[in-house]
Description:
This is Hermansky-Pudlak syndrome 3 protein. InterPro entries: HPS3, HPS3_C, HPS3_N. One of its GO terms (cellular component) is cytoplasm. By secondary structure, the protein is an alpha+beta fold. The protein is about 35% helix and about 20% strand. The strands form ten sheets. It has a five-stranded mixed β-sheet with strand order 4-34-33-32-31, with no helix packed on it. Strands 10-11-12-14-13 form a five-stranded mixed β-sheet, with no helix packed on it. Strand 8 and strand 9 form a beta hairpin. Helix 1 (about 15-45) runs antiparallel to helix 3. The termini are far apart.
Amino acid sequence: MCKSSQSVPNKGGGGGGAHETEATAWLDTISFCNGFCHWVDEEWTLDSLPADSEQPVQSTRASEAAADADESTPPLAEKSPTEIPARGNRRSRIQAFFKRAWKAIKKPFRCCKRTRVESPNVTPQQSDPEPEPVPGSSGLQNVPDTNPAVTEPASAPGLANCEPTPESFYSLYILREVLGKGSFGTVFRALRKNDGRQATAPAAEMVHVYNCHPFASQHIVAAEQEPGLVCCGGGALFVVSAGGCKIEAYNLQQEGCPLICRFSSMGSVLSIRHSAVGDYLVTIEEKNKATYLRAYTNWRYQAAEKTRVGVRLLGHLLRGSSFRGTPKEQMEIIEIPLFEPPLCMACCSLTGDLLVGCAKSLVIFSLKRQTLNEQLSVLDFERVLILHIQGWSPSQVALCAGYVALQTELEVLVVKLIPCQKSSQAAEEHALLPEDIMTETSLDEDTEMTKDGFSPLHEQEDFFVFPKHQEMLGNDAQECGISLVLEWTGMEAESRRDMSVVYVLFRRFAPDFFQGCSVEETHLHSLQLHPMFTGKQEEASISKRGEPTCMFVFFSLPNTGYLYSLKNTVEMVSTYQYPEKAHQAVLSDQFLYVITRNALQCFTVRCSAVAARVDDPYIDTTMKACPPITMEVCALRIQLFIGLKVVCQDGNHIILLTAADVDSKEETERPARKNTSRKTSVCKTTEPADSGHGWNLYVISSVSTLQLYREIMEYSKRYEQSSPLSQSCIHLLSEGHLLLRTALLNLQDCDSAEKAQLQEAFQESCAHLGDCFSRFDKKDCHLALPYYKMSGLTVTDVIKRNMSMSSVSNGYGKGFIFFLKHSIYEETMEELSKDMADKVLDIFSVAESAQLPHVVSSPSMVNADPDSAMTHLKQLEISGTPSITLSLCTASLALRKGDLQIYRQQMDCHAEMLQVYGFIEEPKLLLHGRGKAVLPTILAQHLRDTQEGLLVAAVVALHENSKIRLEEADLLFQELCKDGVEAESSPQLLVDFWEALLVASSHESIIQELLFRLTSVYIDRITRRDRSGVKALKTAEDLMNSCSHYGMLYPWVSILTPVQFNITHDHQEDLHKLQSLLCGPTLEVSSILPLLEQLSDSDGTGLSVHMLCATKLGQHERSIVRLLDRCPQAIISYANHELQNEKLPLWWQKLFPEVCDRIRKIGNDTVLLSALKETLVVASKELNPLEFLDLLPDDGTAHFFLPHLLECSQ
């Protein structure tokens, strides 16, 4: 006792004033109390155990949990009084006394329960030695607590700034960065010295608690009788009386929730659900020990007194006398027959379909609207599908958009019904199965599952064997061992037989205990499927059964909730750690509402973060951002109530049912042991006594999104003032951002003014997030760029905001520099004023001086002072090695100043080829703008007049390195030459660029485009025959030697268009280039045929082009005729070049007859006679004598043909 109550040494040393004295006295009090508790634990708790049982010394938290568990655990079966020693009774009474004293003393000092970080349960390795006990503020010799949170007692006076003593905490942990601060203390990240493990782990996430108010007002519903069950939907609240036979409906949309109507059920209601689609109620009722499933339609007509009620069976419509004459609308009760008693049910929020869970199957009923006559239609259901489950009895089910979720006490399964191709195997699988066969199959399957280890829980005589935790996502869920067999029923069965079951998610939990909940009480609850639509989907899509953007499933244990995303990739979104045992939870788009015994808690959700990434492909890029899905959740508010029983939610209303139990504590804390197998049974509700407890039915209205966002912004300013780089500030801003994003995803119910306010608030939140990330120097600093872009702020506005923040934080963060650098590189950025541009230069000269050449070259910096920019560049050149880009940038500034001497000095520093590399590194030295707004720089204009080759080579290099597109390059040269002597649309400098790019490019699409453009230009110039006298950079001979797409001219082409032809030199070059392209291997002649219409073949120029095109198209016979008619002197050259291989027979089949005919008509023409002789020479070599004799004409002379016949014979 004395050792445990030693005082704590003062860390600061010396005098600390009254403040330190008060703190020391407070810590001494804690030390004494904790030491006393430790002494009680050692002296009494351990000695009171039997001699054969040895237990390790528990930590303070473990001792508390054990003490609490001792009171709630049922006592073991007592032996005979004669067998119990008297000493044991006395010791038990003394032990109970000290336990109560221990709990009473320790209760005010349980500071560890108020921390915001829960440490993982780390099992130390046996080889690791136990850490030496170090006396701390309590002086206890226990194993150190792994909780990293360093907190002070909330009620401790004068301890707001008191740090932990080095003897207790710093000797066991190495402190890292601060995770957050709050009224209860400071949370650090720490490393444990004995094993190097972090004190925080992903399995135990931080739960942030912010004192924001998501609830606006609350009022009590004036129900006449005590509520037993509650549900809501469609703007109405439904209350089932405690007796279970009276249902009251209240209007949630009106102030005070006035009564809409009340009606009686046909039995005692065990469960009730409402469907917004169809506006009907469905109940599970009990009467005379039998269970029924009923649906109540047109219930709103019960507002009028003495209204008729119709009762009918499923599928049997009321016809005849009931609807003769004027149609009458009335409430109908539909009896829905089932083979098995219903255990649970759920309604699809999109289609209104009904899912009913039974002991061995799931039954799906499709909602229909049957038309009785032109003026009246009624709702009805059709049983369309039965899913036989082997080995499962669901306790809760959910249905939405084809997804089916079901759970037992410790297992959850989610499947989806999807279309598939019909097959004989599928037909056999979907065949109708008798009930007896299903029962035998179920039993056999259970046996197999037992053999394979899938049996959930096997009860032995003295203990239970529980399965381990298991999670299967996507295709892996098929191995869960649960078989589902489809049985189609109803009229639509034939049309829907092409459906199959796809396993989506399976999760199994092992029973566990924690404070306030025993192993027997560990079971799942609050199963829910939650769809989420985005603004791109119209409201009408719900009625048309459109697919939601995202689908989520939520289920919860008493201490932890789980939220999964099901569409696309199945993944866990969030886990929710509750501070105490949770009874029920309800998920909405923005929040998760959880009720414990005496508190309503509101947690944030990440549904909008998932939907944003599905809806917008630009999320998580430099254009847009969104808080991550894995961001820790937070609790916004804990609202205290007494005896919470039920929670439900409809729109912006939360309904709570409270009932203050006055039963004995022993009866409420000693639940009977439940059978925790899969084959569970639904517990029947017991009717409470009228005087058992008091009750209240609350309707709580949530605040608007904008109001809650404003409160979060005000709350975040506290963190920003205390620690601008705190993660808590960004966490709060991210929560507000997600709230606004959720509201923006669903704007159908908002008016234009509210939409504008939401959009304005959204941009404001993006600006605040950009401010936070701009101050960061960590990995997330890049997020400042997309958030600032989404904020709608100009670069000037962002610079001013960060200038004001830099005066406080003494410098600019990396996030701001990252944003500024990328913004300046973009072409769409606005021009900065002179003062702002000079400020940017000053910022980069200090932060990243290497970026100055790129910054100066930006089009947004055109108003910057050239002298100031030259000064910064000179300092950069002095401080480091000069670069090509730096020299080009300096030369560009010299041109702006008109200093040609400095310009020539800088340009002479590097060769032209190296300067091309400089332009590749910084294209903005030559052009500004993108798309249709391309403007040349002053440097590009100067190169046009002095170094055309360098300009063309630089633009070609930019295109080949994907720095500029072909259309942008065309606009650049057109802008450069628009004031020149060339008035045509294709100036010579642009044609030079095309020719140079054709030499360098390797992309087939680019090559064909360039060939077409060049052919068009050549034909146009040859046709018009007017030139401005501008000389091309490359001649036809240069192109033939350097480019494979330009071929050598054919010999017969030179005969058609000799060099002495009566055209100018420039047109001669264009003609040779065109002929060279036609002689090359790449040009597709069929693509340029429309261009040949403007080129006449009346002269040799046009004839040569037309002949080349016809020849490449395979029209050799036609070409022979045209040559003999227009230029017979080129026919032999043409035949020697073109009539080869498979075209060789054209010598004697086409050319020989044509030449003979012309000789007969014209006479002995020397050119034709020479062509005839060459033709006979080729024919004599290729034909045999008989074929040659057949070829000879009858009117020919023997002395002319005889030598060729002899040569053929030899």
